[in-house]
């Protein structure tokens, strides 16, 4: 089949407003918009201004009302606990209404913030949808973050209430959430009035009197009472959620998502980009704490009337490298979306792909990879072993859905290994040099998107318009800066090469080395530090810390390094995967005092490097190389 991509992209280019107005026809609106796009409203304009809608209604109620009540909406598969729970659209509605009723009884209403700090349990999705139903704004915090990260988000979002659980399950260990939650509330200046706690059988916790409520009990009471909670009309431009993502400092950025544009864009992507029809099963193997989880575990599949799989487990070790194929076969998954790391892990454990033929993958059509660079070797391995198309695509927390992709629903374009595809409608992607001039095809530069951003992308940062302008809009006037460097080839395919800031991508998790440096600097014996991302076979990148000790410290450096590793785990969380810290005498700097992180990274990666002309003292780089020798981890 020849692809309709070029025709559809040209349609969008001709008249973006008409394009999105047509796409908006797939959504149920309470009140239609006054303007599809208002360039005067907000920082760079807003979509569907004047419209009213409700995201929960579109994700659940309308399917229940229109023939999908008995279709499965959500399948929760825990490869760790060994359970599978299934919810039809009618059952999902019942759960979400019960939880919305509990929230409403606690005074949560339109515009109130609710933090959700949960493992991969169905209740996390119920809580998100219950907030959407009430017009409340949810902010999901990834369970792998430690108390201080949670506290920072509590202070920024100022939630009325937090929904959490007694524990999470990681292979071989149970992670108690309650002490982290209590620690975070203790640390935060803002104190939420209530916490709803899901008691998981694997490890229950003590509830804090006067503050905590047992979530399951409270929901059961509402169900028994036949509670009814109508969907609250909200403005299309009202926030649906805040999702914090790494910035260049320890203070994360609160990416805001609106209701109207978000629904329109996500719904459009399901059929056109992912090629998945209503009634089919879609599986995003990610976590609800990340944007992939928001968009493609919860909202997009439900908006499109699909069945979504929510998976608690890992691609390997729960119990083996065949888990993904087991889930695909057992639930009839049509398309899987995950990070390349997952496939590097599977390939590492089962290089021959011996587990693949053990399962019936006949319903499975396409594998989508995103979140980090997909190395061509892994991509080809997956193509070969699965015998299905493997599609790399590129986006960010800020955009909420793919910027570039290979839109299989419009007819697949030829795959170029190493490229995450071509720009999707909505995105005018350009590559500029540092002075803001366009570079020629094939030349490396700053990847930017011409404003306005399409519906569904962040319209602002939570309570931080100026930070939004400074971080994304100031450097290249008229464009949104993605902070990725890359090139567009003669055929219009994008290639992403690196970040231009201090963000690193660890197992598909976005982390700030700047944030980690702030933690290293907190250690009493550390005078100076630097963190760089070094190459890792499975996780793509892992952080490596360099510390210079205070004068006069004569403790064993190995002991200090271990303490620093522990400090990062305690302050940021296990997810930072900081396992390697090296003590050095001095850090290499330019004559103006800038730390030469890029050169240090090359040395740590055993890549060729050249002596920077601006270096203060060339001998330091040899000291760094020497300190790294034989030091893979502490
Ligand atoms: N709650 C508590 N701890 C968590 C957690 C959570 N929700 N998620 C991860 N962690 C912990 C892990 O247990 C691990 O701790 P450890 O250092 O004690 O082993 C640490 O954080 C790092 O986790 P992770 O990055 O997941 O590494 P891993 O070694 O446990 O697993 C992979 C490696 C490749 C199997 C795993 O990263 C993976 O499945 N990646 C798929 C990609 C993905 O989901 N990306 C998300 C964006 S799309
Ligand atoms: P996140 O906000 O966590 O989704 O991370 C976004 C960043 O991950 C991007 O800015 C890129 O640096 C990187 N990224 C995401 N998808 C890809 C991809 N397909 N190829 C290369 N890098 C990617």
Automatic annotation (TrEMBL):
GO cellular component: a single term: intracellular organelle lumen
Alphabetized PROSITE patterns for the sequence: AMP_BINDING
Chain ranges of the AMP-dependent synthetase/ligase domain: 70-450
InterPro entries, alphabetized: ACAS_N, AMP-bd_C, AMP-bd_C_sf, AMP-binding_CS, AMP-dep_synth/lig_dom, ANL_N_sf
Domain named Acetyl-coenzyme A synthetase N-terminal: residues: 5-59
Gene Ontology molecular function: propionate-CoA ligase activity
Domain AMP-binding enzyme C-terminal: 516-594
Annotated PANTHER family: ACYL-COA SYNTHETASE (PTHR43347), ACYL-COA SYNTHETASE SHORT-CHAIN FAMILY MEMBER 3, MITOCHONDRIAL (PTHR43347:SF3)
Protein name in the entry: Propionyl-CoA synthetase
């Amino acid at each position: 089949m020849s692809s309709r991509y070029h025709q559809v992209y040209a349609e969008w280019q001709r008249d973006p407003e008409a394009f999105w107005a047509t796409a908006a026809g797939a959504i149920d609106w309470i009140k239609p918009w006054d303007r599809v796009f208002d360039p005067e409203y907000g920082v760079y304009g807003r979509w569907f201004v004047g419209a009213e809608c409700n995201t929960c209604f579109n994700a659940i109620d309308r399917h229940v009302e229109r023939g999908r009540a008995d279709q499965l909406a959500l399948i929760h598969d825990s490869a760790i606990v060994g359970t599978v729970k299934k919810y039809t659209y009618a059952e999902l509605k019942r759960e979400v209404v019960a939880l919305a009723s509990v929230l409403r009884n606690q005074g949560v209403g339109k515009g109130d913030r609710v933090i959700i700090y949960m493992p991969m349990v169905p209740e996390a999705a119920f809580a998100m949808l219950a907030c959407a139903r009430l017009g409340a704004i949810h902010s999901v915090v990834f369970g792998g973050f430690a108390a201080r990260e949670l506290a920072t988000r509590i202070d920024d979002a100022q939630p009325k209430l937090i929904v959490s659980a007694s524990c999470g399950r990681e292979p071989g260990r149970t992670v108690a959430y309650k002490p982290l939650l209590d620690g975070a509330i203790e640390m935060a200046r803002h104190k939420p009035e209530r916490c709803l706690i899901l008691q998981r059988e694997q490890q229950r916790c003590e509830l804090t009197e006067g503050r905590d409520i047992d979530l399951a009990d409270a929901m059961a009471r509402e169900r028994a009472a036949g509670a009814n909670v109508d969907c609250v009309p909200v403005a299309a431009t009202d926030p649906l959620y805040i999702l914090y993502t790494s910035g260049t400092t320890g203070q994360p950025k609160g990416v805001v998502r609106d209701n109207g544009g978000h629904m329109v864009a996500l719904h459009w992507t399901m059929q056109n980009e992912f090629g998945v029809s209503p009634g089919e099963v879609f599986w995003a193997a990610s976590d609800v704490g990340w944007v992939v989880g928001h968009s493609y575990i919860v909202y997009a599949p439900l908006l499109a009337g699909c069945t979504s799989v929510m998976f608690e487990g890992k691609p390997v070790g729960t119990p083996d490298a065949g888990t993904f194929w087991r889930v695909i076969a057992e639930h009839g998954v049509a398309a899987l979306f995950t990070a390349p790391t997952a496939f590097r892990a599977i390939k590492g454990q089962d290089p021959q792909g011996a587990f693949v033929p053990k399962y019936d993958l006949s319903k499975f059509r396409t594998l989508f990879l995103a979140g980090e660079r997909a190395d061509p070797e892994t991509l080809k391995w997956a193509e070969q072993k699965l015998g299905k198309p493997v599609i790399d695509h590129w986006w960010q927390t800020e955009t909420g859905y793919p910027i570039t992709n290979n839109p299989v629903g419009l007819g697949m374009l030829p795959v170029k290994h190493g490229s995450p595809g071509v720009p999707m409608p909505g995105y005018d992607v350009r590559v500029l040099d540092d002075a803001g001039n366009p570079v020629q095809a094939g030349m490396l530069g700053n990847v930017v998107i011409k404003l306005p951003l399409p519906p569904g992308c962040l319209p602002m940062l939570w309570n931080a318009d100026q930070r939004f302008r400074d971080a994304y809009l100031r450097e290249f006037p008229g464009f949104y800066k993605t902070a990725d460097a890359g090139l567009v080839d003669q055929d219009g395919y994008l290639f992403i090469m690196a970040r231009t800031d201090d963000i690193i991508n660890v197992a598909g998790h976005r982390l700030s080395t700047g944030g980690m440096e702030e933690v290293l600097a907190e250690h009493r014996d550390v005078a100076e530090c630097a963190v760089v991302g070094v190459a890792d076979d499975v996780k793509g990148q892992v952080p490596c810390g360099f510390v210079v000790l205070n004068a006069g410290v004569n403790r064993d450096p190995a002991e200090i390094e271990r303490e620093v590793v522990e400090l990062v785990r305690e302050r940021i969380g296990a997810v930072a995967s900081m396992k390697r810290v090296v003590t050095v005498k001095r850090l290499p700097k330019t004559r103006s005092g800038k730390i030469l992180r890029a050169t240090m990274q090359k040395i740590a990666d055993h890549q060729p490097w050249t002596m920077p002309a601006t270096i203060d003292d060339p001998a330091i780089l040899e000291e760094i190389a020497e300190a790294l020798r034989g030091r893979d981890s502490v």
